Amino acid sequence: MSKQRVLTGITTTGTPHLGNYVGAIRPAIQASQSANVQSFYFLADFHALIKCQDPDLVHQSTREIAATWLALGLDTDNAIFYRQSDVPEIPELCWMLTCMAAKGLMNRAHAYKASVDANLAAGEDPDFGITMGLYSYPILMAADILMFNANKVPVGRDQIQHIEMARDIAARFNHHYGEHFVLPEAQVDDNVNAVLQGLDGRKMSKSYGNTIPLFLPEKQLKKSINKILTNLLEPGQAKDPDTSPVFQIWQAFATPEQSAQMRQQFAEGIAWGEAKRQLFELINGQLGEAREKYESLLANPAHIEEVLQKGAAKARAYSQPLLDKVREAVGIRKIK
Ligand code: TRP
Questions:
Q1: Which residues of the chain are under the pLDDT cut of 70?
Q2: What's domain 215-295's superfamily in CATH?
Q3: What is the value of pTM for the model shown?
Q4: Cβ–Cβ contacts within 10 Å for residue 151, how many?
Q5: How far, in Å, from the CA of 145 to the mean position of ligand 1?
Q6: pLDDT recorded at residue 206
Q7: What CATH topology corresponds to 4-195+301-330?
Q8: Nearest protein Cα to ligand 1, atom 13
Q9: Residues lining ligand 1, judged by CB closer than 6 Å?
Q10: How many CB atoms lie within 10 A of CB 96?
């Protein structure tokens, strides 16, 4: 039996933070070590253009995210790790899917709808500032997934709708042109620790400006951890771990024993400063080595590029034959 295919994309905007690590990168790297799945991980740089029109930022983020995954030990012999824009079959498939995707389906996409709602609330034209990139975003995502006939797509809850749209588009294509695509399923991590809290206790997210970047230099990591929201309870006063982002972040890095110990220390009234010092030690201990690798990878961008090129060649060994069949199926053929 052929291996299950697991695929996920990382939009290359921004610098990876602890929330990305805990929620997506760490589980993906673990999963990639399993012998009975074939994993595909890619840098979604075409998707980045939807959100970010600053070329230097797109480029910098692509480099940083690639270095991050490599530094954290992604096994690129086992997992196929590539950049979306290195696989020209993806945008080509995207067009074919666009011609099968119902406009009404795209009208319901929540990222687009949120922008329309914001415009209406501001008294603007509903389409103000909305590009076709944003509107068609789910179709490009469907192409990413269907191109490799992925079975499972690990994503955050906010992306479930997009996977359902990919299924919809695939089913319509299959119905019209014959069975070419596997219908993918979203895989959502329901572990409470999969969603990390940020400095202010809300979900850690770039859009809230409450993140702790993953590879901050030691001193800055310490400073950033010191900014995590606490309350006015003094040393010696018992503290509630279950409402504390300090404890929640601790749990995401600690063993169950370490979590039990920290819970005990909260009950005994550990000082916030001390809890944060221990949190810094824990995180720094787990990321210190990877941070060094990260720095040395960034100092050698040619190596990163080479790894991505090898990944693209492996990815295209899948995408080229499938696209050939799809072209044939839709009637894009040599004249003869
Ligand atoms: N849209 C996804 C996000 O913002 C990233 C992404 C692009 C993706 N293509 C994908 C995720 C394909 C899974 C599969 O998180």
A1: 1, 192-193
A2: Tyrosyl-Transfer RNA Synthetase (1.10.240.10)
A3: 0.92
A4: 19
A5: 9
A6: 87
A7: Rossmann fold (3.40.50)
A8: 8
A9: 7-9, 11, 44, 47, 141, 144-145, 153, 155, 159
A10: 22
